[in-house]
């Protein structure tokens, strides 16, 4: 991991749109809008798509874990899961075997729908990545991880 020496507080800039936080939020908002657009054509929202992606990689996740990983509240996560279940894209038991967690899994239709929308979503991410010289991408990814970690402490 890169060790960095503190440089002191951020310097004021004459235009708020040049602050790091503003630029990170602008990039996030642009990504969200582009994803919303392509997912809408497939009848999905960003939290629903993110949930399908996570369940494909980690079957059996609980509502609480999925909510955390998709950046929504547990209550909103439950609404997302109910919508996906009503659409036949996921299954979860009516009751928990132990505790309160009900493991969630993709159905065959969930896997199929995910495969269809992944291409569109990955194309959005590729548009973003193509804007960066390839040799700078690893540094950008590492720096974004450092920013998130610094604020989670």
Write structural notes for this entry.
This protein has a two-stranded antiparallel ribbon. Helix 1 packs across helix 5 (108-130), helix 2 crosses helix 5 and helix 3 (63-69) packs across helix 4 (74-86). The two termini are 16 Å apart. The mean pLDDT is 90. It has one domain (27-152): Arc Repressor Mutant, subunit A (Orthogonal Bundle), CATH 1.10.10. It is built from six helices and two strands; from the N terminus they run ααααββαα. With 153 residues, the protein is mainly alpha-helical. The radius of gyration is 19 Å and the shape is globular. The chain has helices spanning 20-40, 46-57, 63-69, 74-86, 108-130, 137-152; strands at residues 90-91, 105-106. The longest helix has 23 residues, at 108-130.
């Amino acid at each position: 991991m890169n060790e960095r020496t503190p440089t002191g507080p951020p310097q004021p800039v004459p235009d708020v749109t040049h602050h790091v936080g503003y630029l990170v939020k602008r990039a996030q908002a642009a990504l969200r809008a582009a994803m919303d657009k392509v997912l809408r054509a497939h009848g999905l929202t960003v939290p629903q798509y993110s949930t399908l992606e996570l369940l494909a990689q980690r079957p059996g996740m609980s509502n609480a874990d999925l909510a955390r990983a998709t950046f929504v509240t547990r209550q909103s996560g439950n609404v997302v899961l109910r919508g996906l279940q009503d659409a036949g894209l996921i299954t979860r038991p009516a009751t928990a075997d132990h505790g309160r967690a009900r493991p969630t899994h993709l159905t065959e239709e969930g896997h199929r729908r995910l495969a269809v929308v992944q291409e569109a979503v990955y194309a959005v991410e590729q548009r973003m990545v193509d804007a960066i010289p390839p040799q700078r991408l690893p540094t950008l990814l590492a720096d974004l991880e450092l920013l998130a970690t610094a604020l989670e402490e």
